[in-house]
Design brief:
Elements (H helix, E strand, L loop, with lengths): L2 H15 L5 H16 L19 H8 L6 E5 L7 E9 L4 E10 L9 H11 L2 E2 L7 E2 L11 E4 L4 E7 L2 E7 L8 H11 L7
Antiparallel strand pairs: 1-2, 2-3, 3-8, 4-5, 6-7, 7-8
Amino acid sequence: MNRLIVYVFITFLFALVSCKNNDANKSELVQKKDTIEEVGMVSSNYQPIPDPCELVSKEKLSGIFNIPVESITIKSDQYSSEYSRSCNIKWDDGTQLRGLMILIQTNPLPDELDGWADLYLDTKREEGEKSLPDEDNSIKYSRFDMISENSAFNMDLRRLYWEINPDMIFAVFLSDNLPEKNIKDYFFSVYKAIDFKENN
């Protein structure tokens, strides 16, 4: 199967289980998800995802970004699903509001799709992702040279993805108003600060 087709299908499935526009969308999501499960497209054997907000402390973030602990707000995304969970972190450094997001995604088809994380990251590096409004322009990623794990990194988008295991990916998105000269160091420091063990 063409990598791009598989990637588009996975992206569609994440969008389906993570739909979050309003209460009407939530109702539609439940109906669609029930239909998918009835025909066997979604495995009940998915890998549980930890709460990303519990994996990093305000104290560590304070040290990384040189900001007061009391200025940091950490909030879980209320629209998370069994396949995707995120945590929004914000702070005011006295000049403007800055922040980051921690995202965890897991294989939506663990019984049918082996090596999902590797395929996902390979596709970001080799095929890239479409940019709006110019969908003909594909934004490609590269490996992040400061970590050993399989990864995909884009400086312009301020995004870093890395593989935890064949069925799970972590990601960190940084706000675009952080100093560019420090971006790679920020990513590496947040990566190190995330306290996750697979036997948690």
